[in-house]
TrEMBL record:
It comes from Marinospirillum alkaliphilum DSM 21637. NADPH binds at T10, G11, S12, I13, N123, E125, G210. It comes from the Bacteria. Keywords: Isomerase, Isoprene biosynthesis, Magnesium, Manganese, Metal-binding, NADP, Oxidoreductase. This is 1-deoxy-D-xylulose 5-phosphate reductoisomerase. It catalyses: 2-C-methyl-D-erythritol 4-phosphate + NADP(+) = 1-deoxy-D-xylulose 5-phosphate + NADPH + H(+). Residues 266-382 form the DXP reductoisomerase C-terminal domain. The keyword S-adenosyl-L-methionine does not apply. Catalyzes the NADPH-dependent rearrangement and reduction of 1-deoxy-D-xylulose-5-phosphate (DXP) to 2-C-methyl-D-erythritol 4-phosphate (MEP). Pathway: Isoprenoid biosynthesis; isopentenyl diphosphate biosynthesis via DXP pathway; isopentenyl diphosphate from 1-deoxy-D-xylulose 5-phosphate: step 1/6. Its cofactor is Mg(2+); Mn(2+). Pfam families: DXP_redisom_C, DXP_reductoisom, DXPR_C.
C-alpha cells in the first residue's frame, strides 16, 4: 500500500486526486488530509476515506473533532499552521500531494520536502516564491519532486531519463514549448478586457479549476508562474522556454531536441491524468479519463501570445530575471490583486497594473532566507493593497 497525504483535499486538485485514489484503492491508502474553509466537504472526505489525520484551522479544530466523533470517525484533528506542517511531515505517509493554493502552501510543502517525501507538486506558487531555497531543500533532504501541473508533467514525460543528471548539453534537449490555452479572453483587445466580470474570467474554456488559477489563466499570469516553475523544475533559463498558445489544451507541452524532433504529451484536459501519472510513476494506473478522440477535435491550432493585451507573461519573465525576492513579490501582489478582482474592487486590467507598480516600488533582495522571503511577501501584499486603494 502506498500511503498518501493530500494537502488541499477540498479543492479542485484535491477532488481529482481523491477520484484517482478511489479508483485504485487496492494500491493507495489516504492517511492524511487538509482543508481550510470547506469543512463540510472535509468531513465527508474523512467519513468516506477514514484517514488517520485531518488538518484544519485552529479555530475549527475542536468542533471539527467533535463532528468526526459524532460521525463515528476516528480521524485525529491537527490544528492550525503547526498542525498542517506536522501533517505534511508525518512519518506514516510515503507521498504528499501539495494542492493548497497560493503562498499558504509554502510552509507545509517545505515541511514535506524537509521530511524527504515524494512530493506531487501542484502548488506552483510555493516554488515560484522560494525557487532556489526550495530546490536546495529538495537536494539536501533527498526529497523527490514530481510535477503535477499539466504542462510540467507533460514535459517531465517527454524528457529523457538522464536529463536531470546531464542537463541540456548531455541530453540533446534544445527548448521546452510550454502550451497555454489563452484562457477565456484569447483574442480580446484591451478595450474589451476593461469591463470583463469575475464570472467571465473564471469560465475557463477547457479546464475546471479553482477560482484563483482560473483568473490567472485569464490574465496569462498562470503561464508566467508556469514559466518560472519550469525554470526551477528543469534547471533552465527562460530564454530556453517558448510559450505557445494552443486553444484546444490537448497538447499539454513539448520538448524540442537538437535533431529536430519535438516530443509532445497529449490527452484530454483532465487533471486526473497528470495526477495518476505522478502517483504511480514510473508505473501507470487507471485515471478514469476517456481515450483521446483526435478525430472529434479535428484541428489542433497554435498562435503566439498577445503580450500587449496580457502583460503578465512579460512581468513574470522580468521578475525571474531580476531574481532574488522578485518572483515572491510578484506572486504576493498577484494573490492580492486576484482577490480584489474576484471581489469586484478592481477591474481585470488593474491586475497587471497592480503587479507592475508593486514590482517598480519594491526593493529586490537576495532570497536566501525563508523568514526574509515571508516578510517580503507580507510587504508586497501591503503595498498591493495600498495601490488598489488608490485606484478608487
Ligand atoms: N485546479 C487545477 O486544475 C490545477 C491547479 N494547479 C495548482 O494547484 C493548486 C490548487 O489549485 P486548485 O485545486 O484549483 O485550488 P482550489 O481553490 O480549488 O483549492 C485550494 C485548496 O487549498 C486550500 N486552502 C486555501 N487557502 C488555504 C490556507 N490559507 N491554508 C490552508 N489551505 C488553504 C483550500 O481549502 P478549502 O477549500 O477548504 O478552503 C483547498 O483545499 C494551485 O496552486 C494551482 O495553481 C495546477 C494545475 C492545475
Ligand atoms: C490544468 C493546468 O495545468 C492549468 O495550469 C491549465 O494549464 C490552465 O490553462 P492555461 O493554459 O489557460 O493557463
Ligand atoms: Mn498548468
Amino acid at each position: 500500500m502506498i500511503r498518501v497525504t493530500l494537502l488541499g483535499a477540498t479543492g479542485s486538485i484535491g477532488q481529482s486526486t481523491l477520484d484517482v485514489l478511489a479508483r485504485n484503492s487496492e494500491a493507495y491508502q489516504l492517511v492524511g488530509v487538509s482543508g481550510h474553509q470547506r469543512l463540510q466537504e472535509l468531513l465527508d472526505i474523512c467519513i468516506r476515506f477514514q484517514p488517520f489525520y485531518a488538518s484544519v484551522p485552529e479555530a475549527a479544530a475542536n468542533p471539527f473533532q467533535q463532528q468526526l466523533r459524532d460521525a463515528g470517525c476516528r480521524t485525529e484533528v491537527l490544528a492550525g499552521p503547526a498542525g498542517l506542517e506536522q501533517l505534511a511531515a508525518e512519518p506514516g505517509s510515503d507521498l504528499v500531494v501539495a494542492a493548497i493554493v497560493g503562498a499558504a502552501g509554502l510552509l507545509p510543502t517545505l515541511a514535506a520536502v524537509k521530511a524527504g517525501k515524494r512530493i506531487l507538486l501542484a502548488n506552483k506558487e510555493a516554488l515560484v516564491m522560494s525557487g532556489a531555497l526550495f530546490m536546495d531543500a529538495v537536494q539536501q533532504h533527498g526529497a523527490t519532486l514530481l510535477p503535477v501541473d499539466s504542462e510540467h508533467n507533460a514535459i517531465f514525460q517527454c524528457l529523457p531519463d538522464h536529463f536531470a543528471s546531464q542537463g541540456l548539453a548531455g541530453s540533446g534537449v534544445e527548448r521546452l514549448l510550454l502550451t497555454a490555452s489563452g484562457g477565456p479572453f484569447r483574442g480580446w483587445s484591451r478595450e474589451q478586457l476593461q469591463s470583463v466580470t469575475p464570472a467571465q474570467a473564471v469560465a475557463h474554456p477547457n479546464w475546471s479549476m479553482g477560482q484563483k488559477i482560473s483568473v490567472d489563466s485569464a490574465t496569462l499570469m498562470n503561464k508566467g508562474l508556469e514559466l518560472i516553475e519550469a525554470c526551477w523544475l528543469f534547471n533552465l533559463p527562460p530564454s530556453r522556454i517558448d510559450v505557445v498558445i494552443h486553444p484546444q489544451s490537448i497538447i499539454h507541452s513539448m520538448v524540442s531536441y537538437r535533431d529536430g524532433s519535438v516530443l509532445a504529451q497529449l490527452g484530454n484536459p483532465d487533471m486526473r491524468t497528470p495526477i495518476a501519472h505522478a502517483l504511480a510513476w514510473p508505473e501507470r494506473i487507471h485515471a478514469g479519463v476517456s481515450p483521446l478522440d483526435l478525430v472529434k477535435y479535428g484541428t489542433l491550432s497554435f498562435e503566439a501570445p498577445d503580450e500587449a493585451a496580457f502583460p503578465c507573461l512579460r512581468l513574470a519573465r522580468e521578475a525571474f530575471q531580476a531574481g532574488g525576492t522578485a518572483p515572491a513579490i510578484l506572486n504576493a501582489a498577484n494573490e492580492v490583486a486576484v482577490t480584489a478582482f474576484l471581489e469586484r474592487r478592481i477591474g481585470f486590467l488593474q491586475i497587471p497594473e497592480t503587479l507592475e507598480r508593486v514590482l517598480q516600488l519594491s526593493k529586490v533582495c537576495p532570497a536566501n532566507d525563508l523568514q526574509l522571503l515571508l516578510s517580503e511577501d507580507q510587504l508586497a501584499r501591503q503595498l498591493a493593497r495600498q495601490i488598489i486603494e488608490q485606484f478608487h
